[in-house]
């Protein structure tokens, strides 16, 4: 279409006589012929108008093609296996994830259970709920072998957001974790709320990738009835739970069943074969007061 517009534009310009023959005459005479009522019905005036509109169409098409090229370049950098629902189906390793954090009592209970039953948790805590008053809990979780992923700043339904707002959801969540811990903790995993990150009009994977997210994590088991969850679990499964007492009760029954069946509990990063995370943690790292919740 852009090539066709270019050819039409050239043809129209060549057909204009203007005040002198050729391209220079068409350009110099365009404004006069377009605005002059006396010449409005002349062939040159009509051609001049066509020149204007075809030129505008050509510019719009050029900008659209440039935007498409930028988007294609961004997507080209994203690995094919960037979004995952499970790990290796040949391995008995599985991962437990816990999302949200609205009920902190349940968070503490699940953490205590993970220590008691000896299984790591990959926590996807909403950014604004990752608070300084719970820093001891988070440090204890890391010491236990847990890991933290991103679940956006306020559990956003991303598809209702603009690109800039979605970007802020990821950025603010990372900033909160770093501020509470007192050092940079790169959250290389992201679990999009509701599992939504793209539709026919939007795709936020390039935004996640730009923030250092190495994997977008979904799940293949989401069941709070322990016996059904046990039946659904396969090699490499990622089991989705939330900070709720019902989920705590389920895990209390489910974890021993899965262990007896020969499953090994690992973090999502371990399940996916990511390199161990190296933290630049200062010896005297102290958390500062958590920032006020940001309205987006």
Topology, please?
Blueprint: H1 2-15, H2 23-35, H3 43-76, E1 83-84, E2 93-100, H4 104-117, E3 121-125, H5 135-144, E4 147-150, H6 163-181, E5 189-190, H7 205-210, E6 215-217, H8 226-232, E7 238-242, H9 245-260, E8 264-266, H10 268-271
Parallel strand pairs: 1-6, 2-3, 2-7, 2-8, 3-4, 5-6
Helix pairs in contact: 1-3, 2-3, 4-9, 8-9
What's the helical proportion of residues?
Answer: 40-55%
Helices, by number, come to: 10
Kindly report the oligomeric state of this protein.
single chain
Number of strands: 8
The helix/strand class is: alpha/beta
Calculate the terminal CA-CA distance, rounded to whole Å.
39 Å
Low-confidence runs: 19-31, 65-76, 286-296
How are helices and strands ordered from N to C?
Answer: HHHEEHEHEHEHEHEHEH
Strand content: 5-15%
Gyration radius (Cα, Å) is 29 Å
Mean pLDDT metric:
83
Morphology call: elongated
Major sheet description? 5 strands, parallel
């Amino acid at each position: 279409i852009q090539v066709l517009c270019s050819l039409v534009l050239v043809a129209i310009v060549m057909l204009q006589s203007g005040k002198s023959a050729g391209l220079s005459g068409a350009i110099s005479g365009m404004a006069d012929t377009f605005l002059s009522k006396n010449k409005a019905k002349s062939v040159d005036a009509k051609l001049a108008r066509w020149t204007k509109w075809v030129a505008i169409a050509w510019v719009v098409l050029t900008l659209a093609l440039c935007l498409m090229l930028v988007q294609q370049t961004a997507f080209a950098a994203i690995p094919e296996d960037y979004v995952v629902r499970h790990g290796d189906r040949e391995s008995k390793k599985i991962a437990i994830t816990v999302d949200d954090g609205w009920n902190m009592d349940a968070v503490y209970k699940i953490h205590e259970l993970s220590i008691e039953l000896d299984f790591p948790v990959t926590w996807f805590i909403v950014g604004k709920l990752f608070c300084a008053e719970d820093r001891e809990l988070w440090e204890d979780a890391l010491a236990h072998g847990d890991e933290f992923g991103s679940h956006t700043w306020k559990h956003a339904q991303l598809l209702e957001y603009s690109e800039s707002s979605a970007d802020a959801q990821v950025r603010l969540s990372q900033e909160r974790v770093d501020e509470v811990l007192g050092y940079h903790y790169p959250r290389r995993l992201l679990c999009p709320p509701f599992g939504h990150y793209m539709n026919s009009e939007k795709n936020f994977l390039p935004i996640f990738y730009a923030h250092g997210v190495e994997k977008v994590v979904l799940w293949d088991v989401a069941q709070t009835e322990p016996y059904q969850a046990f039946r659904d679990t396969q090699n490499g499964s990622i089991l989705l739970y939330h900070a709720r007492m019902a989920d705590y009760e389920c895990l209390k029954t489910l974890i021993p069943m899965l262990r007896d069946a020969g499953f090994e509990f690992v973090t999502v990063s371990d399940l996916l074969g990511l390199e161990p995370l190296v933290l630049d943690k200062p010896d005297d790292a102290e958390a500062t007061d958590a920032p006020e919740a940001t309205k987006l």
